[in-house]
Amino acid sequence: MDSIKNDLPMAMTMAAFAGISWYIGAELNISLFLFFKRRRGLYFWSCALASWGIILQSLFIILADFGVWTDLKGSITFIYLSWLLMVIPQSWVLYSRLYLLMQHDSLLRWVRAALIVTTLIFGVTTLPLGILAQTTMPSLAPVNAVWDRLQTTVFFVQETILSIMYIWQTRKYLRDLSPLLDQSQSSIDSASARAKNGKTKTLLHHLMYINLLIISLDIALLGVQYANLFYLQGAFKPAIYGVKLKLEFVILNRLIKSISRREMSTVRSDVRRGSDSDAGGISMTRGWNGQWPSSSVTEDERQLKTPQVAHHQSSAEYLGDLPPLHHMA
């Protein structure tokens, strides 16, 4: 505590990162509760919990490091609880947007199972170990230091794999989308149609670049963790998680807007040709490559995969009513 008070540059840096965390967390909360008319679902609650964790984690660390909160057990306990709220939902946000592009239900189930396992082993286990090591059992401090690096690495690898899977699925979707775009252009031979198709490809490329930025932020966070910059990492981690969560929100929002525009473009194409989708247009209800969803999916997944167009909803809320992209081609 005394060292951070005497280190003005570090104290100012921590204050700056704390301000970033609070601003992003507050903005995300306002966006979530304004845009979502139906406040339910994995994506909504993952974003909400993660944003609350970002705000609280930064707040508790500032209060503890600057000696405002002098109760060691209480401050450490709430720091670790807010850490759990901040870190664990982040991976479930990644899973939520991966669901829109992934066409293999069996692979999605494996991803979901892996997230549950890492949540239980590296999420829940970290709480008692960290609290005990920094309060009543200092002898566990070396073990906790190793475990802290281990769980940081595990979550880094997990989130990186999810981002790489998203990039891979986006590239696959772009490749498979090309003949459909050509078909749409031949049926509606106009400059506006070609411009819209070009915007769709540009948008998906931008989403891939944002994922690369997220991976870079994870690498920076991992570097700070292994550099033993104790005070810096305490304020830096919530800020990085806040930026990542904001980028995830932007990715999903833009992706859903792209899906809704594509739905309406397909409907207009079918209407102009005087036929339904199965008579020559692009079907919105047929499974990708002619495959229907597995019968083992849950009722929530069936509802998510039911095609609907709701213009009165925001693009973020639209997630709850939208099928994955591979079921709309």
Explained architecture:
Helices cover 75% and strands 0% of the residues. By secondary structure, it is mainly alpha-helical. The longest helix has 47 residues, at 141-187. Residues 267-318 and 320-329 have low confidence and may be disordered.
Topology:
Layout: H1 2-6, H2 8-35, H3 42-65, H4 72-101, H5 105-124, H6 126-133, H7 141-187, H8 191-226, H9 230-272, H10 299-304
Helix pairs in contact: 2-3, 2-9, 3-4, 3-9, 4-5, 4-6, 4-7, 4-9, 5-7, 6-7, 7-8, 8-9
Task: Give a quick rundown of the structure.
It is built from ten helices and no strands. The protein has helices at 2-6, 8-35, 42-65, 72-101, 105-124, 126-133, 141-187, 191-226, 230-272, 299-304.
Mean pLDDT, to the nearest integer, reads: 75
Instruction: Count the E strands.
Output: 0
Helix content: over 70%
- Percent range for β-strand residues: under 5%
Q: What string gives the helices and strands in order?
A: HHHHHHHHHH
Structural class: mainly alpha
| Global morphology | globular
C-alpha-based Rg, rounded: 23 Å
Largest sheet: none
The unreliable regions are: 267-318, 320-329
Q: How far is the N terminus from the C terminus?
A: 58 Å
What is the tally of helical segments?
A: 10
Give structural attributes.
329 residues, mainly alpha, globular
